[in-house]
Please model this.
Amino acid sequence: MPDGSNRRPTMTDSQKRDLIALVWGHRLFRDSDIAAPEQAVCVENPGYAPEAGPGEAVTPGPDFTNAAVRYGDSLLCGAVRIDSRSSQWRESGAMTDPAFDPVLFHVVGQRDRVLVRDGREVRTLVLTPAAEMEALYGQMLDEAVRGGTGCAGFFATLPGVQQEQILSRLTAERLRRKTAEVEAIRRSLGGCWDETAYVCYLRSLGMGGQKRSYEALARSVPLRCLVRCAGDVRQAEALLMGQSGYLNVASASDPKIRELQDIYLTLKKEYGLLRPVVSWAGAGVRPASLPPAMLSHAAALLARVPVLSGSLKAASERGMAALRDLFGSAETGISPAKTDLRIINFVIPLLTAMGRDTGDAQLQERALGLYEEVAPEANRYTRLWQEAFDLRSASDSQAVIQLCTEYCGRGGCAKCPVGTLRLVRLWKKLR
Model:
């Protein structure tokens, strides 16, 4: 609970806007919290917000539609736009956008400017959230910087069914985002699933910003070049290591490195390859996670199975053991944890996207079911939340990662399912 102080927490305009949108949409206010110039106001229905997950593109337009507000002696029905300050609408450059023509009310936290649209003064409602609500929201934003510690404790108090509902939503959001990334890559490659699987596989080897470098590397070595290696691991390794730039900095005194350099220079000229602009900074300190080691394992896989899309689909039909065998084993230097990461970050999104493209519902269901067969990831996010509930599978760990990166890490407490529930619970106590 907030400390009870009347001090209003400091928030950015975006964070204040998110809070006002939450308070308006869930009707967490009294009629006395709404003010309009020289008019009595009573909100009959706040309206309905368009659904969109974090990071998803939102079509420009009102924040709420079909709202009903008694404004003076009239009951007006229409759309609502939310802003922290009334001047934000003009500053955004969206006031003249026809998409906002249905807006009847501009709900703001501060009326710092009188707005005129199409020759008429915009009806502005000033919404002042309860001080306790703002205090808890400010506390949650502070906690979010530390990974949502307070929310973890709150989540632990929820009934199991409610926890499952929230976790399922978060996992679905994360998979939807990853699937959209796969589909975008496929479109950029002319719709070829074989090329898409190859690029997505290499991309999955990186973490954070390194994904872009691995993707650029994959695009610089067309799949046809690896197919022409005809199972020769040395050629595949020379192509990937050479294009990554690591052969330039490796010691030429090593006979293996000299051999790879010679093979690379020959293939580079034969295929007319151009080196991509990549950065491997922050690649991690564990030797097994450094790009040379990752690319060496990738070369072994791609020399053996250059066309991954069909092989992955067939392996998924035979079960998890077949999928793990496809990526290698501990004897070949591939740890079970790394294999599981490939399944989480590459196989499941790829198969889901393929299923969506072909209308194969069974493939989509099979891909989603793989989450339950993979152990939960162990990282700083899951370690923080493991005391709140028992993480049983990758489905749970993906939900936690989605929560921490897309909500806590972006200060999105008012959009987060856990944060929203905390604020709704507080309002019920205040009523």
About this structure: Residues 160-188 form the longest helix (29 residues). Strands lie at 34-35, 41-45, 64-71, 74-85, 103-110, 116-117, 120-121, 124-127.
